[in-house]
Specification:
By secondary structure, this protein is α/β, with parallel strands linked by helices. The chain is 30% helix and 25% strand. The strands form five sheets. Strands 12-10-13-15-24-23-22-19-20 form a nine-stranded mixed beta sheet. A seven-stranded parallel beta sheet has the order 3-2-4-1-5-6-7, sandwiched between helices. Helix 1 packs across helix 7. The radius of gyration is 24 Å and the shape is elongated. 51% of the residues are buried.
Amino acid sequence: MKDRSFSEVHFPRITISGLRGGSGKTILSLALCWLFSRQGFKVKAFKKGPDYIDAKWLALATGNHASNLDPFLFTTHQIRSLFWSKADLFDLALIEGNRGLFDGKDIHGSCSTAELARVLDSPVLLVLDCTKVTRTAAAIVLGCNMFEENLKLSGVILNQTAGDRHRDIARRSIEKYTDVPVLGALPKLSDNPVPERHMGLISYEEIAGRENMLKSLGQVVSDNVDLDRVLSIARSAPPDHEDVIPLSLSSRIDSSGPTIGVIRDSVFWFYYQENLEALRQAGAGIIELSVVSEDDWPEIHGLYLGGGFPEIRAKELEGNRKIKQKVKALAENGLPIYAECGGFMYLAESLDYQDNVFLMSGVFPVRTRVYEKPQGLGYIQAEVVAPNPFYPVGEKIVGHEFHYSRCLSLNQEARFCMRLERGTGMKNSLDGLIYKNVLAGYAHIHALSTSSWALNFVRAASIYKDFVRKKSGSCPDIICP
């Protein structure tokens, strides 16, 4: 990091927002990331809010990891610290908003994209769906521009325009009644270029020819948007004048370097990059593993199972008995295992999906079933109420959940370590099933807002490593922090 006490730090940036979800901001964001990267800029993409899928697509478009910025999960200082820690590494930042520009968790718009743009002092580019709208577009833009103070609404991209006349009236109306420039107009596309399913965009892993898809999106935007003006707006963002403490997700501990396996394959890939970085900073070595492949695993001292879509490849997961037995045996042996949402589903006895029942690893004697509608959606706030390897009792946790599955057949002996003050969880506002040194639940956490998690995970893995190397006695059922 540069010494920010003695120099201004420039980081050209632009925030892409819309009036609602599905307005076209993701398509525009992907195209701009792809186009500017092809122009030779090193682009850092950020996604506002808790979102793994859009962030993964943005990473594909830039060739660099994308980071999430969330005013609910992070403090203002943490947001600025994470954002500006990338300033020396990249030429340009693109921040994709979520939902509508002013939509937050309350009537004041707390945690909205607009709030994030103000925190970052970032100009905003509004994607405006013009379906069956012409002159009214000017009233919408005027209202957005006047709605909140200190918002830098610097440009508009018209979307879903039907023809030259439609584009001309909407453009001239906005330019006549507002001082917000129209930087382009995208035509209606016959098909959604990025297919969707219940959790948003389809996984990039599932789309063949995804590079060609990004190229096609880039061509449409390049033909219809003034890229030079977009870049000029990004460059107009002011420098950072304040001292910013470099991001530190956790303190490095004095350990002998345990190895934590991360299940990262075509099924499980919902991970925040900062979570993996936090584990490394805490002293762990990270190795990527798969529960789809039958390849042997090396010795590991901890296991991290993120979210994903186990229902899509449930038959393959069921058929890979070798790895299922491996995971269950490691759990029985006391291996620290942390599982989130889809990862929890893999640790259950079975998964019910589309009238079929698929056997999973059986670490927990419960079933999960996937439904057509969400069973838990939104932010969570929880208190840790029972001993576990990852959080001290009494700690407050913030995170999020987004699951179409429900946990079934919970018995009276089921042990939970989280009581939710906000959120759904597994049952009766409880989440975080515990078995020996395994913690599994629907909650997703971010290491930036849950700073003890990585340190405790690595400490538990170090204890397990010592137990394995000594080959004597038994690993404690619960390694408490």
